[in-house]
Write a structure and sequence with these properties.
This protein has about 500 residues and is an alpha/beta fold. It contains 16 helices and 15 strands. About 40% of the residues are buried. It binds one RNA strand of 74 nucleotides through helix 1, helix 6, helix 8, strand 12 and helix 11.
RNA sequence: GGUACCUUGGCCGAGUGGCUAGGCACCGGUCUGCAAAACCGGCUACGGCGGUUCGACUCCGCCAGGUACCUCCA
């Protein structure tokens, strides 16, 4: 093994050694998107964070079952338990079937994730496909006495729960504080206390997404799906539950309460939360309206964007910050990421070209250890990247002849560089295959060969004209000692 | 108002009680007809005020500023 992996566990607020329940198997559940709009930069963060964890666990040869849900029902639009279903609302506005909306945005989400090289989860369950499981779980909670029926809806009795267990153990909240701090909302009379949350909600007549249940025609409460589906696919106890920090309270706190009653105490060992992406120091979020969709980023179609940024630039940008830190969006930062990534990718090409010497003065084992140490320390991808840049310096020095490397070390270097860059960080070389159009390639080569002739004749007016015109089209010409390179 | 967290060089962003983070930008150099690219080198910061300590950016206290959660949000 490559050392011990430590993860920051939100529930204890410290880094803990990761020990799976059933070695070598690992169960991981991550809160996925609610598909009622295009994915934005904020959605990319958990997807990439847990993709990193998924990839690293697999690299460590764990057998991982990674479940990431799609929420297609149950998230309410406005005030807690009083609003309109998000999917339903969008469907009414667009005159579409709710499932049509879900299909459309789920497809788009998948497409963006593919571009970001985010591996598909093992199972991607939908809330609407697990209504029965959610009803069964609600029944269990009712039977245990920690829930009550009110006007066709079922609510979790937080106060009663807190007498026996600890409501707030994850988010560090104290129930007494919630009495005074929870907002007074209209129509809360159905609930005993404002902080009680719905397990099942009776649907109002205009509500289109509805299912029959023992209590009413309605829909499941917004915390039920993760509890029901997580335990369905990963068992009564499983290893990791992840999601954005903004889900810590109330979503995950409520999940814990539900699980405790219906499944048992401490049914999830590690709670892992990624931080937010900020823009001008403020959280990028749907409700604030300050989000940039991934589609906009990839195409440069947003006023705040100076240019388009490729999916790998976005991925690298996110990996350059630790997942538990906020990450501030800016054009400058993205452009920095773009250039840095290009250098690392170039380094891999150079690495494949350099030759080993009989003896070398570079020992790669330290690099290898440093990279694993960084990953083991709560997935410190920025440190891994820093070490890869150090390796890059060596690679370039070997190519320049100022350093040497022996055959054995070169092989290990290739293997380490490759596995961290591509396999674990999940980056890929986007330039490969671009400009794959053979005719275009030959035409540009031909033009540049003409330019070489002009240069040989010292006809710099012509050579500069050719270069300028190509630049205008978007082709960058790079002169080399004995020829040229170009890229689009 | 309650709770938690943050404040690092021009920008992004790691980390540590004493030892260079890294990237980008910038500056200098190599290369080039000139550029660009690439490469090499330089650039040494930790909000303010106190305290603990042989020594603090790192620990403690206070202050200032900011953010998150408390309502759907990744």
């Amino acid at each position: 093994m490559q050392g011990k992996l430590f993860l920051y566990n939100s529930i204890n607020r410290k880094k803990e050694e990761f020990i799976p329940i059933n070695f070598p198997f690992v169960g991981m559940y991550v809160c996925g998107p609610t598909v009622y709009g295009d994915a934005h930069l904020g959605h990319a963060r958990p997807a990439i964070t847990f993709d990193l964890l998924f990839r690293y666990l697999r690299h460590l040869e764990y057998k991982v079952r990674y479940v990431r849900n799609i929420t297609d029902v149950g998230h309410l639009e406005n005030d807690a338990d009083q609003g309109e279903d998000k999917i339903g609302k969008k469907a009414r506005l667009e005159q579409l079937e709710p499932m049509e909306v879900v299909q459309y945005f789920a497809d788009r989400y998948h497409r963006e994730m593919d571009k970001l090289n985010v591996l598909k989860p093992s199972i991607e369950p939908r809330a609407s496909g697990h209504i029965i499981e959610q009803i069964e779980m609600t029944k269990k909670i009712l039977d245990s006495g920690f829930a009550y029926i009110s006007n066709g809806s079922v609510y979790f009795d937080v106060e009663k729960y807190n007498e026996k267990y600890n409501y707030g153990k994850l988010s560090g909240r104290i129930l007494e504080d919630l009495y005074s701090n929870t907002r007074e909302l209209d129509g809360q009379s159905e609930k005993k206390n404002s902080f009680d949350f719905a397990l099942w909600k009776q649907a109002s007549p205009e509500h289109i997404m509805r299912w029959p249940s023992p209590w009413s025609d309605g829909f499941p409460g917004w915390h039920m799906e993760c509890s029901a589906m997580g335990h369905k696919y990963l068992g009564e106890k499983f290893d990791i539950h992840g999601g954005g920090m903004d889900l810590l309270f109330p979503h995950h706190e409520c999940e814990i309460a539900q699980n405790t009653v219906a499944v048992g105490e401490n049914s999830i060992n590690y709670w892992v939360h990624n931080n937010m992406i900020t823009i001008n120091g403020q959280k990028m979020g749907k409700s604030l309206g300050n989000f940039i969709t991934l589609d906009d980023l990839f195409n440069g179609t947003n006023q705040v964007l100076e240019k388009a940024y490729s999916p790998m630039t976005i991925r690298f940008f996110i990996l350059q910050a630790h997942y538990r830190s906020t990450l501030d969006f800016s054009n400058e930062a993205l452009q920095a990421a773009e250039k840095g990534l290009a250098r690392l990718m170039k380094g891999n090409e150079t690495l494949n070209k350099i030759k080993a010497s009989a003896s070398g003065n570079y020992n790669v084992s330290e690099l290898k250890k440093n990279c694993y140490d960084a990953m083991n320390d709560d997935l410190n991808s920025p440190i891994v990247i820093a070490h890869l840049f150090d390796a890059l310096k060596t690679i370039n020095s070997v190519e320049a002849g100022t350093e040497t490397i022996d055959d054995a070390n070169l092989e290990i270097l290739k293997q380490v560089y490759h596995s961290f860059l591509f396999e674990i960080l999940g980056l890929k070389n986007e330039n490969e295959g671009s400009g794959s159009n053979e005719i275009l390639k030959e035409v540009v080569d031909m033009v540049l060969n003409l330019r070489m002739q002009a240069k040989a004749n010292k006809d710099y007016a012509t050579s500069d004209l050719i270069r300028n015109e190509l630049t205008k089209i978007g082709i960058t010409v790079k002169d080399k000692k004995d020829g040229f390179e170009w890229e689009i």
